[in-house]
Amino acid sequence: MEPEVIEAELVLPTHLSFKRVQMYEKYPKGQSRGRHWKHLRQIIQAENYQNFPPDEPNYVNIESPPSMHPCKKICDITGYEAPYSDPRTNLRYANAEVFKLIRSLPNEYVQRYLAQRNAAVVLK
Amino acid sequence: MPFISRIQRQSDYSLFPPSTPIVIDNGASYFRIGWAGETEPRVIFRNIVQRPRHKTTGETVTIVGDHDPTLLKYFDCTRSGPRSAFESNVVYQFEIMEYVLDFAFDRLGANESQIDHPILITECVCNPVYSRGKMAELLFETYGVPSIAYGVDAAFSYKYNQQHGVCAKDGLAICPGFTTTHVIPFINGEPVYKGCCRTNIGGFHITDYMKQLLSLKYPHHMARFTWEKVEDLKMEHCYIAQDYGSEAQLFQKGLKEAEEKTRCWQLPWTPPPTEEPPSEEELARKAAIKEKQSQRLREMAEAKRSSRINELENELNGLEFLLRQLEQVQEGDIPSFLSETGYVSKQEIESALMKVTQSLRKTKGEPKGDQAEIEEKNDPITSEKFPLIDIPDNMLTAEQLKEKRKQLFLKTTSEGRQRAKQKRHEEELERERRNQEDEVKRLENPELYVEQLQVKYKELCEKVEQRKRLKTNGGPTNGNNISGGVGRGERLSATQRERMRLLTTAAFDRGKGEDTFGAKDEDWQLYKLMSKDNDDEDEGPNEDESELARLSSRLQEVDPTFVPKLDIGTSQSTEVPRLRPLTKEDFQIVFGVERFRCPEILFRPNWIGIDQAGLDEMAGVSIRRLPSHDQELESRLTSSIFVTGGSCLFPGINERLEAGIRMIRPCGSPIKVVKALDPILDAWRGASAYAASSQFFTQTFSKMDYYEKGEDWLRGYELRYTL
To answer: Which segments constitute the Vps72/YL1 C-terminal domain (chain A) (predicted)?
Structure first.
């Protein structure tokens, strides 16, 4: 290791005196094998919130409902208000110049613009 | 960086008695740890872990938090990026959490056999019990912590500011964080989670949105937009527009106000060295060198030519001498005489002589056309040249007949040539005449003339273009060939398509009733139409094109500014950017609309595809969710709206929130929005003050409690914030 790296104590030491169980004892072969943690979705599923009264707050039911305000549509490229949408690319656009631009965009870019608002074509 | 990480190792760990709690604000973006009762956390770092490989030794190491990027050059970070223990705002990867805690306690100066201090650690609102339990296990089992308390960061921040008189005991806490935004109503100084709501949007999404937008806008500089850099830009430049529509209008109209609001980031750029125009001397020197070279070439060519002439003359003389000698030789001796020279007969020598004279003439540079001229001059007297033509066949011998046929052929071809020449000449005359006419017109009124010429040129241009499009792309109905539509039909020309149509109809026509094909003669015409030769197109330049060429040349003569369109029919090629030297402007990142477009997603999450209520609406949702619909309580809540959290630092957020909440509240309700004293550190400070109170120990639970009371108890565990 380079002296300045050691100087900055960049690397976490493997043995720490204040720990009862060291990392290398938990995972003797370095990094732990396989996945032993759950994704948030799995955690929520395991919580079985449906077994509890619905008026009791929990991680799932405190989520906000969908917005009741009308959604303002903005141009995907410029961010201006977008009165139009292009039927071919599905992009929203503000004026003729932007339209010219979106018609010249390669499909990859179109999809990336769409992905911004989660409207891209997803192949599964 | 606006947040400076503090990771110096503390040395006074052993000075604190075991009763002093350690306070941890475990945020999704930053981790803060310090001692209860103090006003500042001791150690702050980004809540991330990297496990890169050391480049020279090859061992995998663990690096927690953010460090000087220059030190990371010794590590190969390509395999694994920075990882977080959080998904949304819930801790789910406890292995990473353990690395983070290791690092935190290490930097706090822990050096005993275990962490013998109670711990107050923050968690998200309504943290799933799985996450709570795992965290408790980790702290109890691995670090030997005696007791733990869990609290919500936004609540601590609210309490801290309540103590400082910023907000009242009843109020709404709005906390836009890193991955989520919460609104928590407080009644009598206690959070009411029943009325709480969460939208999964936060600073992470804003930065990500900005990063995406910028890299789409400036694809050439994509590598510049690292996460850290964009985060900095967001902190520095973003603001919340009071009314998005009107703010965007400013920029759309390009008003001066918008110009002032536009920020520009100049990337490092060095102008390419400008080439100085060569000096006079240099030019002269170069010209001299060129002249010298061409002189030498000319001399060489001259020498070659003279030597060739010499050679040819010698050969000619030799051949003539041979012929003269041959005259003296008797007929019978010729073969034996010639056997030495390599020629077989006198004719052969003569033909060789002809060839040599011709090539000699060529090398000497005499006009080659002479012969043809002479030939054509003789043309009028065809009867002399072709004497056999006028004599009837029966008067000729077989040999003469053959000769006559040959002469006939020669005569017709020469006549044809003559005619073509005549026509060319006439055309030239015609063109000359029209030019002269034009010239007259031009002299009469030069401006009008040029104008007319240009109009005519344009019309013709369009006509020719139209024809070309028809030829390549079918009818004028699909005028959008510019936009690069590539369907199957669009690739065929009109005639080719017609042929395809005929073929398909013919193929599917079978079997429908009685087959009467071929009964009429017209039926067979179909094959003619179908045949491939049918779609031959006149490739030669037609009348329009030649006229166009004439006009453009004329225009070039008259109008010095005129530039003929080179590629008629490919209008998209004019839009292709020409290669040009890069300028300073190409290395500028301009933030106009992005400055307020990105943070606007806090108020409109559906812009990035999250179908949930925005900040202002959440306040209304939260009030509605409260069990008691007490008008007085509601107005008390709205007159103490408290904003905290890392993403509330954007200027203009208070005013915007006030306006937004005013819209959803009944007319005349009191609305007051206040910002936390320090939206970022107040949560830790509140927690620190809380842990320092003497009643803190009534709110903690020990390892014994945890294992005895079980999961259900842990689910119901709730801190009382008012002690």
So the answer is: 73-102
CA distances from B688 to B29, B41, B696, B718 (A): 19, 9, 11, 18
Looking at per-residue pLDDT, the higher value among B1 and B17 belongs to B17
Window A:4-33, CB contacts with B under 8 Å: 4-5, 8-13, 16-21, 23, 30-32
Among B62, B130, B593, beta carbon nearest to A11:
B62
- A79–B593: do the CB atoms touch at under 8 Å? yes
Give the whole-angstrom CA distance, residue B589 versus residue B579: 21
Token output for B479: 């005028």
Q: Output the DSSP codes for B312-324.
A: HHHHHHHHHHHHH
Tokens of B579: 């290669």
Give residues 571 to 590 of B whose Cβ lies within 8 Å of A.
575
- Cβ A47–B244 below 8 Å, yes or no? no
B 45-104: CB under 8 A from A:
51, 54, 57, 60-64, 67-68, 71, 74, 87-88, 90, 92-95, 98-99, 102-103
pLDDT score of B482 more than 60: no
- What per-residue string of b and e applies to B55-70 under the rule 16 or more CB within 10 Å gives b? eeeeeebbbbbbbeee
- If we measure between CA atoms, which residue out of B174, B175, B154 comes closest to residue B623? B174
Beta-carbon count within 10 A of B591 CB: 23
The number of angstroms, rounded, from the C-alpha of B260 to the middle of its chain's C-alpha atoms is: 28
Whether residue A40 and residue B113 make contact (CB cut-off 8 A), yes or no, is no
Q: Which residues 6+ apart lie within 8 Å of B142 measured at CB?
A: A19, A20, A21, B98
Alpha-carbon distances of A15 from B227, B313, B657, rounded to whole Å = 32, 104, 50
Name the 3-class secondary structure at B123.
strand
Instruction: Give me the residue from A31, A40, A112 closest to B90, CB to CB.
Output: A40
Structure tokens at B249: 């209008």
CA distances in angstroms from B723 to B49, B187, B514, listed in the order given: 36, 15, 101
Instruction: Please give the Cα distance from B438 to B453 (Å, whole number).
Output: 10
B234, B213 Cβ separation under 8 angstroms: no
Structure tokens at B629: 């619909």
B589-633: per-residue pLDDT in tens?
899 899 999 999 999 999 999 999 999 999 999 999 998 888 899
Q: Helix, strand, or coil here: B43? A: strand
Half-sphere exposure of B534 (CA within 13 A, CB side): 17
Residue type at B75?
A: F
CA angle B474, B476, B478 (to 5 degrees): 80
- Quote the mean pLDDT of chain B: 84
Among B53, B63, B142, B604, which would you mutate to test the A interface (most chain A Cβ atoms within 10 Å of its Cβ)? B142
**B507-546: pLDDT as tens digits:** 776 655 666 777 777 777 777 777 765 545 445 556 777 7
Q: Residues near B321 by Cβ (< 8 Å), separated by ≥ 6? A: none
* Conformational region of residue B498, where left means phi above 0, alpha means psi within -120 to 50, and beta covers everything else: alpha
ipTM confidence: 0.93
- First vs last Cα of chain A: how many Å apart? 45
A:70-109 residues touching chain B, CB 8 A cutoff: 71-72, 74, 78-81, 94, 103-104, 109
The amino acid at B382: T
Kindly determine whether residue A118 and residue B609, on different chains, have CB atoms separated by under 8 Å.
yes
Instruction: Give CA–CA dist B569/B471, Å, rounded.
Output: 11
Contact A67 B144 (CB under 8 A): no
The residues near B576 (Cβ < 8 Å, ≥ 6 apart) are none
Which residues are paired to B90 by β-bridges?
B87
